[in-house]
Amino acid sequence: AIVTGLKPVENRTWSTSFRGPVLIHAGQTVERDEIDGMLSLCARQSGASLALLRNAYDQQAATGAIVGAVTITDCVPNHASPWFHGPVGFVLERPARALKPVRCPGRLSFFNVTDDVLAGLDIPGYVEA
Question: Which residues contact 5 (CB under 8 A, 6 or more apart)?
């Protein structure tokens, strides 16, 4: 939802003073109920068919990989987006999808990726191959 531009805010329990570009990592595990809720909200926002979105997600979903990038422009206690449920939200702009997801072990919070991961990324406007 972030890399497609539908989700303009990422919910966290902690705030950050960081502003700038970050890579988006898809976690290793997927909670089907959370995915279904996310796809339902995407369908309502975009007007697309829920079945079509579910099918596209199932065919293209990547786990344990860098899947895109976004720019954090603010950190707020409230946001008008239906995606916001707080208590803190990172405001996101300039979403971009990786042309090909790159496998990468994840960690909690912000983390640095290795040079080989960066070398494998092609994210227009962020990381050029």
Answer: 95
